[in-house]
Amino acid sequence: MTYKASHILVRAKYEAEDLLLKLKSGSNFEDLAKRFSNCTSAANSGNLGELKVGQADTEFEEAVLNLKINEVTKTPVRTRFGYHLIKRLG
Q1: SS in 3 state form for the chain?
Q2: What is the pTM of this model?
Q3: Which one, of 24, 5, 2, lies nearest residue 84 by Cα?
Q4: Whole-angstrom Cα distance, residue 75 to residue 90?
Q5: Cα–Cα distance, 15 to 51 (Å, whole number)
Q6: Average pLDDT per 10 consecutive residues for the chain, totaling 90 residues
Q7: How many Å apart are CA 46 and CA 57, to the nearest integer?
Q8: What is the rounded CA–CA span in Å between residue 5 and residue 24?
């Protein structure tokens, strides 16, 4: 099984919470990913492309697989890399 996702990766929970507020205020996910994400995927608006189940951290996959397409996580998701805001693409 595969899925597609974008994310914004930051180091601190408060940064992710601030970005969630920006999203709720109408900011564009892709623009925020380009500006604030610490991942190399920031150059692609946070797009991670197609991932196979088992390829990403368990916490990340559980969060993305519970989202509907184009839905964004309501709270930051913590992994060994930091805090993610995740958008399921497909």
Answers
A1: CEEEEEEEEECCHHHHHHHHHHHHCCCCHHHHHHHHCCCHHHHHCCEEEEEECCCCCHHHHHHHHCCCCCCECCCCEEECCEEEEEEECC
A2: 0.96
A3: 5
A4: 20
A5: 25
A6: 97 98 98 98 98 96 97 98 96
A7: 17
A8: 19
